[in-house]
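Title: Prediction job returns without error message
Component: structure pipeline
Severity: low
Priority: P3
Assignee: unassigned

Description:
Job completed but the reporter wants confirmation the result is attached to the right record. Sequence as submitted:
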Amino acid sequence: MTTPGTIRAGIGGWTFEPWDESFYPPKLPKTKQLQHASRELRAIEVNGTYYSSQKPATFAKWASEVPEGFVFSLKASRYCTNRKVLAEAGPSIEKFLTQGITELGPHLGPILWQFMATKKFEPEDFEAFLKLLPKRQDGIALRHVVEPRHASFQVPEFIDLLAKYEVAAVVADHADYPMFADATDDFIYARLQRGSDDIATCYPPEDISLWAERFKTYAGGGTPGDLPVIAPKRKAAKSRRDVYAFFITGGKVNAPRGAMELQQLV
């Protein structure tokens, strides 16, 4: 999908009214916003796929508007993850993966499987869910990342399961949700959610510099020493990794500027 060790910084979506003034050029047609955003940033996380399906032609259109090397991360349908028994998610997962996402071709990035904050870790059921995630779809390799948001997942057993099935967990910089800094696959997926609209770069410049160094460490095959890992006794592979870092939620007005600043540093 990408050259190992590539670091991409991005945002969530590309349509947000305040960005008409804070990010996009004056009078830029909304039909041109994706083209502009994809040339200023290197990745976009699509949230709309969480709420509803898209047509194959839509994914193909997105792919036609972005430059080489740009990727879309897709948030998987809520019907796959918002359920009591995850082992029963098979039909929903298949529906999501066969709606036409592979029309993105080389622009298809990781698929984000986000869970409700009330969803607790049940080892057998969660492993059954991981078994449902295919490695390929229509001949295209898939990367999967999960975002559990309940503290019960902060156990080595969870990290071991992810490593077993080659799935990543979100490195979540969030005030309430747990962070999983352990590297369990050949890529790292971070969601930086502590930004502020009062800061021109979303995050303070010194914090962006700190994250830039962390991402460089991850890309080089290491693990940042200042982030808490869940399974410290487990030795992660030292091979180079791709990194996807998104400025999400907090400080959304200036999220594009934060992503651009981070991209310059890496």
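Comment from assignee: result matches the submitted record. The chain has one domain: 7-265.
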